Amino acid sequence: MPSIEQFTHKDGAKLCSDEVLFSILSDGSWLYLNSPLPTKFARMFSHILHCIDTEYFLITPVEKVKVSVKTWPLLMVDVDKTEQGFCFKSNLDTDFNVIPSDIELEQQRIFVSLPRGLTAILNRACYYRYINEHVDFD
Rounded to an integer, what distance in angstroms lies between the CA atom of residue 120 and that of residue 72? Predict the structure, then answer.
């Protein structure tokens, strides 16, 4: 069985090609060879998306494929409070449970640190919901 090191280390799985096959646009949509990728496939591939040394890859136990990311790899569209912290829902309809220290508030943006070196940004509606419901300005 492969170790987690093979998935996350830059020298782990072999790079299949220097060509970028997948792209993620600023609105969170995925492209394969510059053609729109159906959401069900983008959702599936998002589970093997990694960020290593500021580069993005889809990594399996035997191969690694480059991914071009315009701004952020994931866009959060909803948030709910949980016992441990928060559950964010992405534009791909995937859920991420995070603790409060994984959330970074900036002047005009909110970021969420996720597994596999990924960072997500909140869309406008999620941003305002999080600010209104979960941030205390006192």
Answer: 6
